[in-house]
Write a structure and sequence with these properties.
Helix content: 40-55%
Order of helices and strands: HHHEEEEHHEHEHEHHHHHEHEHEHEHE
CATH superfamily: Aldolase class I
Shape: globular
Radius of gyration: 20 Å
Oligomer: single chain
CATH class: Alpha Beta
Length: 383
């Protein structure tokens, strides 16, 4: 299969599987426990049907939306994800350039593999820094100041990783960051020689946001589950979140909000946005899907804070359904990570281009010329 033959999410996933060593692919692909929530994240969109209108004059369609004070050309953006240079040697550089080409936002993780300074110099498109609250307060302060100095537009504090989820695929494959050279891993590398050549001949794998403070993940191999459980501060509470929000002093979101009560408290501590997310089903298996939980959160706080729907999005119609419920925009990781693994920047650009085409076509078929024309009037629940 070639990139030109990738026409949807599943095609990118298939190509990524062919190009990545097994442990790396399963790190992207897997989720917690029985992976029930991971599956439900996408299945939930199938529980609702779209009801289109016709004869609406849809020659020109505006796909733009405004979140965190920034206008995006698309109502979907590339969520921050960790370890991207394990998937493709260009990592965040490729995603940044692709996001800028399509006029949308993208995020850099605390566990990102390219520095915020380099990304800040590279692109002017809106940028989100995803913040993990570590036990090391010096590291926390450093990441905030560095992201601020690099002119990142939004900080998103992840709040659903108070301990690592039970990602059994990673346990079976032995996936770690950085990859350990074991007999099993060397066999998987040998089976993907192009990936191995690029990984070992390009600059050394690093986690530059962490490198002056933490050895785990770069010099000391560790699983992501173990990293969350040992390096992040499990005493993090609402006062800590409020203090970080105040220290950032700008557009600030909580990433991983799933309850109405937490959405209301996010407003109380000064957040300008919330990301309704269950971490792609990678943390609490059995948690409700993001889309299923979206309506009651929007009904309670949607007029006071930007609400983003994240998780399970594989089609343009999924985006339209979330926007119809009341989300200001959607985001996701796997929706571009498979494409990144498949073909770097070209892959991400093709994935975003397909989403743009799908959303525009589906808007026309819905009889809508702008995002604000979508509403629950054009949705029906399938009983």
């Amino acid at each position: 299969m070639r990139l030109s033959n990738c026409h949807n999410f599943h095609d990118f996933r298939s190509l990524a599987r062919r190009r990545l060593p097994g442990p790396v692919f399963h790190y992207i692909d897997g989720a917690a426990d029985d992976e029930t929530t991971h599956r439900r994240n996408t299945e939930a969109y199938g529980s609702y049907d779209l009801v289109p209108n016709v004869l609406a004059g849809v020659k020109n369609v505006d796909l733009s939306t405004t979140i965190f004070g920034k206008k995006l050309a698309l109502p979907i953006y590339c969520a921050p994800t960790a370890l991207q240079r394990l998937f493709h040697h260009d990592g965040e550089r490729a995603v940044a350039k692709a996001a800028q080409k399509f006029g949308t936002m993208f995020g850099v993780s605390s566990l990102g593999t390219v520095s915020v300074e380099e990304i800040g110099r590279m692109v002017t498109t809106p940028k989100m820094f995803q913040f993990y609250f570590h036990k090391d307060r010096g590291l926390n302060n450093s990441m905030i100041e560095r992201a601020k100095a690099a002119n990142f537009d939004v900080m998103a504090l992840t709040v659903d990783t108070i301990t690592g989820g039970n990602r059994e695929r990673d346990l079976r494959t032995g996936f770690t960051s950085p990859p350990q050279l074991t007999l099993q891993s060397m066999i998987s590398f040998a089976l993907r020689p192009k990936w191995a050549f690029n990984h070992f001949t390009h600059p050394k794998f690093e986690l530059p946001q962490l490198e002056d403070h933490v050895k785990e993940g770069t010099e000391l191999a560790t699983s992501i589950c173990n990293y969350f459980s040992t390096m992040l501060d499990q005493s993090m509470n609402w006062k800590d979140a409020e203090d970080i929000c105040a220290k950032w002093d700008g557009q600030f979101a909580l990433k991983g909000i799933m309850s109405v009560e937490d959405a209301k408290r996010a407003i109380d501590i000064g957040c300008t946005g919330i990301i309704v997310s269950n971490h792609g089903g990678r943390q609490l298996d059995g948690s409700r899907s993001s889309f299923d939980q979206l309506a009651e959160i929007v009904d309670t706080v949607g007029d006071r804070i930007d609400v983003i729907c994240e998780g399970g999005i594989q089609r343009g119609t999924h985006v339209l359904k979330a926007l119809s419920v009341g989300a200001k925009a959607c985001s996701g990781g796997r929706l571009y990570l498979y494409a990144l693994a498949a073909a770097g920047q070209d892959g991400v650009e093709r994935a975003l281009g397909l989403f743009r085409s799908e959303i525009e076509r589906d808007m026309k078929l819905m009889g809508c010329t702008s995002i604000d024309q979508l509403s629950r009037k054009n949705l029906r629940f399938r009983r």
